[in-house]
Specification:
Blueprint lengths: L1 H25 L3 H11 L13 H9 L11 H12 L17 E5 L9 H5 L5 E2 L7 E2 L19 E5 L20 H5 L6 H6 L4 H6 L10 H5 L6 H45 L3 H14 L1
Antiparallel strand pairs: 1-4, 2-3
Length: 292
Amino acid sequence: MLLDVAILTGLGLLSAWMLTASRQRFAPATDELIEEINGKLPQTQCAQCGYPGCRPYAEAIVRGEAINKCPPGGASTIEVLADLLGREPLPLDESVGIETPPAVAVIREHECIGCTLCIVACPVDAIIGAQGQMHTVLESACTGCDLCREPCPVDCIDMVLQEESAVPDFPDVKKPCINCGDCAVACPKSLQPQLLYWYRDNNERTSVLKLNDCIECRLCDRVCPSEIPLTDIFKTSKARARRELRAKLAAEAAETRYIARESRQASKETRVAKRPSADDRAALLASLKGES
C-alpha cells in the first residue's frame, strides 16, 4: 500500500515537473508575450488600470499583475487574456472602474473657453484647438478614455455613448453536420464548407480557410443532407470578422497616436532639461560682463 502511494506520488510530481518544463520551453519570449497581450487590450490609454497606458499594463501582466483591471476591455478581454496566459478568468476588479459601453467625448463648443487643458490631457491627440480658441474632438480618433473631462474648468465635455451594431447571431441549426463532404464537392471555389462551419466563430481559422473567397452561391446549402443554412452562417462569420477587424485597426491607430504623443512629450522634456538654469544663465551673463 505504501509502495503504491509512493509510486503515485512520484508519478504526480513527475507529471507536474514535465508540465512546468513544457510550458517554460514553449512559452513565447517576454517581449513577444508583451506584444501579444498589448494586442489584446483595447488601446484606450485610459490609465484606469493604474498604469499610464495599455503597453505598461501589458508589461505588468507579464510580471504577474492581475488580468482583470481593464474596464474598457471588460469581461471579453479578461477571457481572452485568461485563455492566452492560462489563468483564471476573474471578474472585473471594480475598484478600478466598471465596464461601460463605448463612448466618445463631445465638447459643447459654445461653452469652451479655449484653455487647452483637455488637449494636454488627451493621450491620443484626438482634440484640436488653440489657446483662446474653440476646441473640438475628432470622433474617429477618440478612444473614450474620459481623461479630458476632469481638467476642464467649465465642465463643457460630455461622454456620449456610441450606437454599436449588435453582433449578428448565427442561424439556428436543427440537424448536426454529418461530415459527408458533399458541400466541398459542390463548392465552385474549392473551399471546405464543413470546416468553415465547424470553425464559424473562430476568425483566425476561417481566415486560414479563406472564408472571404466564398461567393455565397448557396450550392453548398442545396446539397447538404442536414439542411444546414451554410451560406447564411458564412455571412454571419464574415460580418463578425469585419467587426473584429475594424476594432483591431482602430486600436492600432490609437496606439500609434499614443506612441507619437509620448515620443513628442519625451523630446520636449529632454529639450527643457538641457536648457541652462536661471543660476547658470546669471553666471554666464556675469562672466560675459566681466570679460567686457
